Amino acid sequence: MTSHEGHPPEDAADSPENSASTTTPETAETAVTTETSEDSPTRRRRLRRRVRLRHQRLLHITTTTVVAVLGAVVGLLLVPATSVEVGPLTASVHMRPSLSSETVLLLPPVGQVTFDSHTAPVRVEARVKSVDVEKAEALFYADSGFSELQRTAPETLAAAAAKNAALNALFAAAGAGLAVGLTFRRVRRALLAGGSAVAVVGASVAATSVTFSPASLSQPKFEGLLSQAAYIADLGQGKAIEYSSYRDTLAEFVGQVSALYIAADSLPVGLNQDNVIAALHVSDIHDNPQAYDVIEQLHTQFAIDVVIDTGDIVSWGTPLENELLHRIGTLEVPYVYISGNHDGAAAAATVEAQPNTTVLDNEVVEVAGLRIAGIGDPRFAADDDSDAGGWREGDEAVDASVFQLGDTIEAYDAAHPEEPVDISLVHDPTQPEGLLGRAPLVLSGHMHTSKVELDRDGSGTDWMIVGSTGGALASGGISPMLSGEDPLDLTARMLYFDEDTRRLVAYDDIVMGGLGLVSVSIERTQMPEEVPELEVPEDAETPEETGPPEQEVEPGEGLPDEDRVTPTDPVSPLPETREPAPASSDGGAG
């Protein structure tokens, strides 16, 4: 045996295995700490796995949320409106998610009223669908009508809103749950999405209820016709409204809406918007740009087929006034025009230069399916009110021009027996003989007040005069305000013609408070079913000489300003203030 026998070799004692077998606990602990503190491959794998799991979890949460939101939105879009009867009104109430917190009352066809009523991402929308005319009349004539509305209207609308809110929650939950369930095939995740949707909708509805401010009723915003005319009622008059007075205000509002629709009966049986021709009759705009806003909004609300303007579109015939007429070219509806006694040749030329316009000068045209005849006024009053101050020199000229148009219509009807003239246009209705029995319907303006005379003088001719669509703004419209009276109303008339027979079947008189007054009304009248035969009265035969040769209007040419009857220079400046017209005048027509 050698001296090394029984002892490990020297290199064996220094090997890693032998060192490990002889390591003390303190040494082992130090080794483990050193290994875990180092950026070892195992540590890196664990960190990567942990980050990956965290990203996957975040992605799952994000995609689930997005799918749930999309499903909830689809569900909310499918929520049906809740019908409710408030007095004579039948309305629908709808709550929708929206970035604008508002309550909107839709009043077809006159527009909408919007209130900034609450603080929540919810739009409360109420639409008036119909009005029971008999109930509306009972409301106005019964002593207890408004007191009953005060008692029932708030609760009725609140109940409808609550029902629609519940439907919103149900449909949102169903939409979110189905979307998540079908996408991820996880029942638990679908239930969680549905529950979250209910919680969000519930919180929004609660916020709407808590933050609702009745005082917002005193600060309405308008769209449609209401934005250009006025508000139905002056709710609150700018004062804060407490809940007690809110009940009264709501009842008054319902009553005013009922009044708006009370006479707006439906068209005759068998007729609707698809088989009628809608013509808007305007007149005596007298430089009021608001009139074109009204026309534009009426076109939006009523789908007008043609606008008929019976003159006095300006007041003095100045170039500045004529510039205002370019607005007609933006209306995007056919516009038929005859000149009034305030309109110079330059005004007529400016109108004719606009798109979709027709200026009539003793001729017949067909527009929107209607055959229309018209002639301009033979006077040019410029800065004078023509006949408001007793000046009647132009009567003979007006009479002659009306007979000229009557002869033109007779000649046209003889050449077109199957397609006779439907409508005739003259500005001044005071000399009617030339059209009596020759035209079924005559439209005029000039008087600044509205009037309808059916079967005038037994001739079978219906004559309709419309008031000032511009409130006679630049021709005496402001004068009443200077004496403490109300300004003239802005008026227009919608005419409905049977598309097949071209017969007038109904008309709407539209009246809006002038210069800031808070009123708007629409009254519908149906025409009699029996149509009288046209018959020229014995004293309305065309005279041998209808007027001076220089005032004979060649079709399509019109009269130059210098050949029209006028008491003043046609290019005279703006008038000075004059004394009011005498009581014997025609009431200030211009």
Secondary-structure blueprint:
Elements: H1 10-13, H2 16-21, H3 25-37, H4 41-77, E1 82-86, E2 89-97, E3 102-107, E4 111-115, E5 122-131, H5 133-141, H6 145-184, H7 187-211, E6 221-223, H8 225-228, H9 243-261, E7 276-282, H10 290-302, E8 306-309, H11 319-324, E9 335-337, H12 345-352, E10 357-359, E11 363-367, E12 370-374, H13 395-415, E13 423-425, E14 441-444, E15 451-453, E16 462-465, H14 473-477, H15 479-482, E17 490-498, E18 504-512, E19 520-526
Parallel strand pairs: 3-5, 7-8, 8-9, 9-10, 12-13, 13-14, 14-16
Antiparallel strand pairs: 1-2, 2-5, 3-4, 4-6, 7-17, 11-12, 15-16, 17-18, 18-19
Helix pairs in contact: 4-6, 4-7, 5-9, 6-7, 6-9
Q: What can you see in these coordinates?
A:
This protein is an alpha/beta fold and 590 residues long. It has 15 helices and 19 strands. The protein has a seven-stranded mixed β-sheet. Strand 7 (276-282), helix 10 (290-302) and strand 8 (306-309) form a beta-alpha-beta unit. Helix 5 (133-141) crosses helix 9, helix 6 packs antiparallel against helix 7 and helix 6 packs across helix 9 (243-261). The radius of gyration is 39 Å and the shape is elongated. The N and C termini lie far apart (148 Å). Residues 1-23, 227-244, 385-391 and 568-588 have low confidence and may be disordered.
Quick synopsis:
With 590 residues, the chain is an alpha/beta fold.
Sheet with the most strands: spatial strand order = 10-9-8-7-17-18-19
First-to-last CA distance? 148 Å
The gyration radius over C-alpha positions equals 39 Å
Report the β-strand fraction as a percent range: 15-25%
Largest sheet: number of strands, sense, barrel closure: 7 strands, mixed
What is the helix content?
25-40%
Give the averaged pLDDT, no decimals.
Answer: 76
The number of distinct β-strands equals 19
Bulk shape: elongated
The oligomeric status of these chains comes to single chain
Count the DSSP helices: 15
Structural class: alpha/beta
Query: Which runs of at least 5 residues are low in confidence (pLDDT < 50)?
Result: 1-23, 227-244, 385-391, 568-588
